[in-house]
Amino acid sequence: MAVTSGYLGAEKAHAEHEEEHDPRESLMYDPLPRGVMNEMVMDSMHTTSWKFWVVLGILAFLVATCFFYAWGYMIAKGLGVAGVMRPSYWGVFLVNTVFWIGISHAGTFISAILRVMKAEFRRPFTRAAELMTTFGLIQAGSSIFMHLGRVWLSYWMFPIPNERRLWPNFHSPLMWDLLAITTYVLGSTMYLFLPLIPDLAMARDRSTGWRKTFYRILSLGFRGTEGEWRHLTTAMNIFAFAIIPVMFSVHTIVSWDFAMASRPGWSSTVFGPYFVLGALHSGMGAVAVVLFLMRSTMKHMTYFIRKEHFDALGKLMMIVSFTYAYFFFNDYIVQWYGGDKWTDTLLHWLEEGPMAWMFYQMIAFNIVIPFLTLWNKRVRQTPWLLAIIGLLINVGMYWERYLIIPVTLTINRMPFTWKLYEPRIEIFLTIGTFSMFLLFYMIASRLIPLIPVWEVQEGQMVHSLRKVGKAQVPTVSEFE
Amino acid sequence: MNNLSVDLNRVGAKGALAEEANGKWGMVIDQDLCTGCQACVAACAMENNIPFVMEEDAGYGRSLHWIRIERFWEGEYPEVRTTPYQPMLCQQCGSAPCEPVCPVFASVHSQSENLNLQVYNRCIGTRYCANNCPYQVRQFNYRDYHIEPFHANEVNRELAFTFHNQFNPDVTVRRRGVMEKCTFCIQRIHKAEDKAKSEGREVQDGEFTTACAQACPTNAIVFGLLDNPESLVNQLAQHQEHGYHQLEELNTKPRITYLKEG
Predict the structure, then answer these.
(1) Percent of chain B, pLDDT > 70?
(2) Which residue from A78, A171, A262 is facing B176, i.e. has the nearest CB?
(3) Dist. CA A421–CA A407, nearest whole Å
(4) Bridge-partner residues for B87, per DSSP?
(5) A297 with A391: CB under 8 angstroms?
(6) For the whole model, what pTM was predicted?
(7) Do A149 and B68 touch (CB under 8 A)?
(8) Which of A157, A169, A414 sits opposite B135 (nearest CB)?
């Protein structure tokens, strides 16, 4: 008898715990009528305050000066105005490339992997993450071209038939890079576009004037018939599965630019997965920042982006941080254990040299801070706090790439040439790429629905609260 | 030596065990004879149209010399001892790390001279070859140095580049954005080959030499036909017990043998 009562008591405690947590806090169990939700998203696109235009103006100015003018100046004057030199022939431009490709990984991860895994919390922010992929890749691509000595001849890397039968060198990791990034840009742009079609059709039906024309062209005449949905779902499924290996391969190939070279600190076999995890790490952090900015600046976003989403994102960030730490120590400890003379010198240089502050900040921001904070539910559920952690992770990841490229290049097998790199015009061009990314994002936030409304509605249709006795029980029905 | 069933040379494997990978042209540098006078550096710059980069750029690590004299110190302060001077130039590797990484085949191996070439016209300036060169002997043109004002005098309010009058017509003037490096004075090789061909004979060892070897007052640099067992360079490279190759552990098969403390 005593055993039974104990069991009943446990049941009661469990029920009380459930009561504290109202299922309606979750977006999926807090449905709104379709029309209302559509209007909310349309409203969020149309509402712009003067602050929006001021920020847009500043960013446009920065893009014009720090991106286009600075790049044009560099093309006119030569790479002498940049900081590259012997031995750091690669500098901040490639740091930016790797960084932006890293940012772009979050989009694919959240939207493709979580879609395939049917993780429900992804629904309201897949679009925001996919946009990061496309815009990040634009910055990565332009950073690669910035770094070329003769950028006007960069088309020589494309396999264009010519009368001299000159052909690109497919032995070169840079060629693999070019092909992988091009594939990724095309694939991820199509993958951004496909789930956008129903939302563009929704926007078309609710707008007038030039916007209507814009949406009519982009929505490709989507009306929402059974057949159209079937085709769209099939296409999205194919792309979701196809883009995952592309995503893994792209950053692995980017890491091969370094791993294939015979430089101390670079020729490491663990670079592939290490870079992929590093990319996810910075990408997740960037998603947290973007979600926070969306939620705090755009109308109606508090309905769509909730604490539960920050919570889930925080958990993902923590897992990625653990995995990143594993690969980080794997890379460094195995290299240290190898005892190679040059690698030893390099590790000492990183730990004690003039860039040691960067090395320790990297460890603090990428590993220590996420470990110390993200286990806490209250931290994960505080949007601004998660955004700050995401920002710090991104700073740490930027430092990581900076240490891997120009700082590692300082140490080579010819001690006579050792010299520390210092960025010059690269600083402006970096500001330019960041401004351009934000500018594109702000323009996109007014032109395309940042919330995939149909995905949220689809999710809400399969989730429901059922009454069992007096309790409301969250239920999920199988779909597809 | 080669017990593999596959002929690595035939399949073109990197670092193949070719006996003939010794190369055609080679060099021997005797570090015991080198006085560090830098005559080779100056001669190379004159021969190969290498412009000055001036103090600021050179101090920042952008000097354009195809050959440099490296100096090192050994020991802690009171007991400091300089090591022999180490002239460093392109080692013309038989298995060169700079070649496979170029996306546009600007860094290629020539079959006739068996040298490592840089095609300036084809180079787009990714600088990957320079990163992958363990000897750090590839130089990048950060600016159009040959038309920088510091090479000119002002005559009637116009810049006059007297410097251009001393250019070697046999050597390309490189523009900004391209890589360059030591060519083993390939223009001299070609001149000698053409002359020999017109006279219907093979090129003889010692018929000509590179600018650096020509300028060396102590004959520390010896250049010649490496594949000719009678040649001085072959004798020195093959039969000196204190000869070594730079960074031999990387198996790049350098064509330059260094002699030290013999």
Answers:
(1) 91
(2) A78
(3) 7
(4) B69
(5) no
(6) 0.91
(7) no
(8) A414
